[in-house]
Amino acid sequence: MKNGSRLASVIMVAMLLTSLVLGCQSSESGGQKPGKILLGVITDASGPYAAVAGPTLNAFQDAVAYVNDRGGVDGVPLEVVVRDGAGKADLATSMYTELMNMSPRPQMLFLVVSTYGEALHDRIAEDKIPTIATTSPAAIYPRAFTFGWYSLYTDWFGMYIDWLAKTWKGSQPPKLAFLTWNTSFGRSVLTPEDYDYAKSKGVNIVAEEVFAATDLDVTTQLVRIREKGADWIYSSTTANGPVVILKGLKQIGYNIPIAGNTGFDWSVASIAGKELMEGSVAALHTVSWDETDHEGVKAMAEYFSKANRSPKDRTVLYPMGFAGVLLAQEVIGKAVASVGWDKLSGEAIKAQILKTKDFSPLGLQTFSYSEDRYTPTKLRMYKWTDGKALPVSDWMDAPDLRPAQYK
Amino acid sequence: MSLPCGTFNETYAQDMAIVRTRTQWLLLIGGMVLLLALPSYASPRVVTLANLIGISAISALGLNILTGYAGQISLGQAAFMAVGAYIQAMLTVHLKWPFWLALPVSGGGAALVGLVFGTPSLRVKGFYLAMATLAAQFVIPWVIVNVWPDITGGIHSFRVPAPSLGEGLVLNTQVEMFYVIIPIAALMAFFAKNIVRTRVGRAFVAIRDNDLAAAAMGVNAFRYKLVAFAICSFYAGIAGALWAHWMRNIAPSHFTLVESIWYLGMLIVGGIGSTTGAIMGAVFIRSLDLGVSILGPWAGDTFPAIGGQASAALSPLMFGLVILLFILFEPRGLYHRWEMLKASYRLHPYSR
User: Fold this and answer.
1) Which residues of A touch B311 (CB under 8 A)?
2) Which chain A residue shows the shortest CA-CA distance from B154?
3) Interface residue of A90, A105, A188 to substitute, partner B, most B CBs within 10 Å
4) Does B258 contact chain A (CB < 8 Å)?
5) Which of A154, A336, B141, B284 places its Cα 20 to 30 Å from the Cα of A17?
6) Distance (Å, whole) CA A294 – CA A94
7) Looking at residue B349, what DSSP letter applies?
8) Does the beta-carbon distance from B48 to A97 stay under 8 Å?
């Protein structure tokens, strides 16, 4: 009996000590670490945007290699799972369904085509998967689980207007003409908010011309713009869109500077050539490939060369993709630190995204999110000079020019 | 329909029957059971693909009635789908109509629009009628974008809620939508098959074969052409309405000329003039689309020098190649090949 009660006492003390040890463990090491963290990407690898979207995919793979070389997230490596939506919303839906039914499911999702974000917004909200999407208002708002990869196109235009108003040296107020695609992307800047903002900054919008994404000639539109005496042309186009405009300007001998957004990048320069791009201006959300002394560009270029990437991958989408993975590493890492591996969820990651303020991984791009604004705001103006995109302004916050229905 | 050896039609009912023998009934019922049980054994991607095929098949069936049976070519099928999709969206979002009530109204609305664009068939046919229907493909999206952009969303996408069957029963998963889309598709296929067996269907075929002779026989060619346009557009409207709820989002960019051409492609591949062919064509083309999206990244990785460009070219290349090969080597489509296969089996060894 005496030996039995002694044994019982020993067992009870051992249990008490064990529970104390377990109870004192921090939540950071709570739960088993997964073997890997999946990042889902739905891109366009075989459709109309393939040539533009391709570099993002390569950037993801190289950035994941960069992150994993540095220990991943708390020792857990990242892995990218890529699906091709061929630029079509219906295929993207199919790919999304597949990704959401994987085991384990991706912790975050990246959508490289605006159409995907718009089509999948409600499903993403229901599935509670934090998603970074190319930014169209219908993809981001109403606020749920989709966040912008960069500013809204309306905000980009506002940033350009700020720069134009600041640098304009003419005696008369500047006259601006729109010449843009007749698509959702192209017409995203033709909003009352953008018009009012331009007016408030003393910029007169004298023409609004559109053309189809498949058009190869815009001389008719350019002639009409010339008749209105525009000083600048603003275009929300990409790929061959800016090239068609630049060629048209040369054809009719119309010497007018042209400005754009993310579409006016190195992919356009490689098609248009140095001479046509000269003097064009673009607001970009990433660092320039031509800032070769930049530490972030050097780090990115190292992995670019290691993977033997084609020069055609040197577009704005590459640093964007690279920075996106680093953002994922940051927010997932913070979510794990906050709730532990066993409680890691979409809501936990979303909470960290919303706390992200001025996060600039390798200086490639700056991410800031808030409860009110689900898109980053930092942009910089670049001018194409002798075949290089060189900054002509500091990093500035783009104004909030969201269309009224999205506020 | 060719019958198994030893089976003869002895009554009018037997002669007209779509499903004639016990084996055919068993296969039909078994097939339907397998189809309805698909979500239980297929992957979610397959279920999603099945939903897309179901919607496409409805539209292809409608186009088959107009082009395959009535012989009137249309290059505006996607535009008529857009009409159905936007009417459905407007009714369910702005007017809060229930899904089931809005669905037939969307089809009816699309049918009315189809009647308008079918009017040129009174005067023109063939290539010129195709051009007239091409006008629909440009006019309808223009109206959606420019006439009431505050209501339709204009060029931008318009969010559509998941369909609901009452309080608490919202159909927001692929499996739930599967059990809405597939039964509707089956019903529409049944109607399409039966149309051909009616007086109206025979009038369509007569007009297709020789509209002057049909008129000489007393068939009101213009009236029946308009009926064909209306039925085709009704089907397109239903498909568009289902698309709107399945995608949960519509935009004019979902209903382009390329989509209209794809639907014609489904008929060419599947077999113009047969209901089963339209379904086969929808299955083939949508599966091809998915296959190319899987092949695209592989092509980009395998040929890195031409990477993005190679894979970007794959989709139009494959589609064009398939259409070309079918026109050259299998002009009567997959359904004809399937019928030949069945006949050779039945007549073996005399089928050689």
Assistant:
1) 45-46, 50, 54, 84
2) A184
3) A90
4) no
5) A336
6) 40
7) T
8) yes
Cα A405 to Cα B16: distance, rounded to the nearest angstrom: 58
Degrees (nearest 5) of the Cα angle B125, B128, B131? 125
- Closest approach of A311 to chain B, Cα-based (Å): 10
A318 with A59: CB under 8 angstroms? Answer: yes
- Specify the amino acid at residue B210: N
Q: How far is the C-alpha of A102 from the C-alpha of A95, rounded, in Å?
A: 11
B7 Cβ contact list (under 8 Å, min separation 6)? B20, B21
Q: Cα angle at A292 between A288 and A294, to 5 degrees?
A: 80
B162 contacts A50? CB cut-off 8 A: no
Interface test with A, best of B155, B178, B242, B246 (most A CBs within 10 A): B155
Q: Is A270 on the interface with B (CB under 8 A)?
A: no
Selected residues 301-320 of chain A with any CB under 8 Å from a CB in chain B:
308, 310, 312
Q: Up-side HSE of residue B1: CA atoms within 13 Å toward CB? A: 18
Structure tokens at A69: 């070389």
Per residue, the 3-state secondary structure of chain A, as one string, reads CHHHHHHHHHHHHHHHHHHHHHHHCCHHHCCCCCCCEEEEEEECCCCCCHHHHHHHHHHHHHHHHHHHHCCCECCECEEEEEEECCCCHHHHHHHHHHHHCCCCCCCEEEECCHHHHHHHHHHHHHHCCCEEECCCHHHHCCCCCEEECCCCHHHHHHHHHHHHHHHCCCCCCCEEEEEEECCCCHHHHCCHHHHHHHHHCCCEEEEEEEECCCCCCCHHHHHHHHHCCCCEEEECCCCHHHHHHHHHHHHCCCCCCEEECCCCCHHHHHHHCHHHHCCCEEEECECCCCCCCCHHHHHHHHHHHHCCCCHHHCCCHHHHHHHHHHHHHHHHHHHHHHHCCCCCCHHHHHHHHHHCCCECHHHCECECCCCCCCCCCEEEEEEEECCEEEECCCCEECCCCCCHHHC
Count Cβ neighbours within 10 Å for each residue of A164-176 and write b for 16 or more, e otherwise. beeebeeeeebbb
pLDDT in single tens digits along all 407 residues of chain A:
445 555 555 555 555 454 444 433 444 445 688 999 999 999 887 777 777 777 888 899 999 999 999 999 999 999 999 888 888 899 899 999 999 999 899 999 999 988 899 999 999 999 999 999 998 888 999 999 999 999 999 999 999 999 999 999 999 999 999 999 988 889 989 999 999 999 999 999 999 999 998 899 999 999 999 999 999 999 999 888 999 999 999 999 999 999 998 888 888 888 888 899 999 999 999 999 999 999 999 999 999 999 888 888 888 989 999 999 999 999 999 999 999 999 999 999 999 999 999 999 999 999 999 999 999 999 999 999 999 999 999 999 999 999 887 87
Closest CA–CA distance from residue B306 to any residue of chain A (Å): 9
CB pairs under 8 A between A and B: 133
Which chain A residues touch B299 with a CB distance below 8 Å? 46
- State whether residue A53 sits within 8 Å of chain B by CB: yes
How many Å lie between the alpha carbon of A392 and the closest alpha carbon of chain B? 31
Contact A54 B290 (CB under 8 A): no
- The verdict on A250 touching B (C-beta cutoff 8 Å) is no
